[in-house]
TrEMBL record:
Protein name from the UniProt record: Anti-sigma factor antagonist
Pfam families, per database record: STAS
Annotated ranges, domain STAS: 51-153
UniProt record similarity statement: Belongs to the anti-sigma-factor antagonist family.
Gene3D superfamilies referenced in this protein's UniProt entry, alphabetically: STAS domain
InterPro entries (alphabetical): Anti-sigma_ant, STAS_dom, STAS_dom_sf
Amino acid sequence: MIVFRSGTPRPPAGWSPGLGLIAAPRSPGDPPMRSSCAMATLRLSVEWPSPGVVVVSMQGEIDLACVPRLTELIRQRLTAASLRAVVLDLSGVTYSSSSGLELLIHAQRRAEHRGIDLYVVPGTGPVRRLLGLTGLLGHFTCRDTATEAVAEARR
């Protein structure tokens, strides 16, 4: 519980004791944060740009609540019989908790086990910053765009 006493700074505008939000480091270019985690949405699209290559694009926020469904979706894609490469386009992700990092690590391990190439498109925002802060940027095969990753996967 946070108690404000006289003489201490006032809480920020819009703050409510029930929110309990902890924000990741932000840069000036990041979009405004929402006031409630319940409003966070994650939109997915799955495309097959060429035989054996699948692109899973995500837009929105990745947190603990949505990771089980994401894990299942990615697991299904990684177990497809004729799959050569998976491209995870995270350039539209506006927030990712550490559970998003765990998801990427598990996806990488599963892809390596099945002999499938996994490409990550972290974009220029929160996902790239999170991968950089944790030292995991070099752990994944990252590309600047999904188009670039697909072109490399076709080779």
